[in-house]
Specification:
The longest helix is centred in the first third of the chain and has 19 residues. It is built from four helices and twelve strands, in the order H-H-E-H-E-E-E-E-E-E-E-H-E-E-E-E. The chain has a single domain, classed as NagB/RpiA/CoA transferase-like (Rossmann fold), CATH 3.40.50. The strands form three sheets. A seven-stranded mixed beta sheet has the order 3-2-1-6-9-11-12.
């Protein structure tokens, strides 16, 4: 299957679950992440769309604890991260995804949470096809790269291209998949 076929198949599957089922799975995923990484201070997250793993309760919890949270902002073909200052200060950006208006990231974050449509057992990912995260990761390569996915989004193997960037780990509701060196 090519990447677009995989995207289509996973999106249909993701939309076949009830919002309650996805919320339950999301909480298991984000609670496991919180348990492992809540000691960190500077987080890059994504604002969830299209039934992605819901990061909003986790963002709210970490923000309330005084952690620095940054969300992506699309600028042309690239992506930058700006500081989250509360849900009431977000606005719809490109593609209708909510973005913060805070200051631009100017320090090295501790960890980055990356969305995706599909992942494999080697932590390769298929995104939505825009290449924003691959381009960002081609430059910023030193931070921990985590991804959130429902177990049904994990497939055996993704055929990668030279510009595809894997993540370090994938959190699902059942396990944490760690990329082997």
């Amino acid at each position: 299957m090519n990447k677009q076929d995989i995207r289509n198949k996973i999106k249909v599957l993701r939309n076949s679950y009830s919002s309650d089922e996805l919320q339950d799975k999301s909480l298991k995923i984000t609670n496991a992440f919180y348990k492992k990484y809540s000691f960190l201070n500077i987080f890059l997250f994504y604002y969830p769309i299209e039934n992605e793993v819901n990061t909003l309760p986790l963002i709210e919890r970490l923000f309330a604890e005084g952690k620095k949270i940054f969300l992506p902002v699309v600028c042309g073909k690239d992506m930058i991260f700006k500081q989250f200052e509360g849900f009431d200060k977000l606005h719809a950006g490109k593609f209708g995804i909510y973005e913060p208006a805070g200051k631009e990231l100017d320090i090295l974050p501790d960890i980055m949470c990356i969305p995706g449509v599909a992942f494999d057992e080697s932590c390769n990912r298929i995104g939505y096809g825009g290449g924003y995260y691959d381009r960002y990761l081609a430059v910023e390569n030193t931070i921990i790269k985590s991804a959130f996915a429902y177990e049904f989004q994990v497939i055996d193997k993704i055929e990668t291209e030279s510009f595809d960037k894997p993540v370090d780990e994938v959190f699902t509701e059942n396990r944490i998949i760690i990329r082997r060196a």
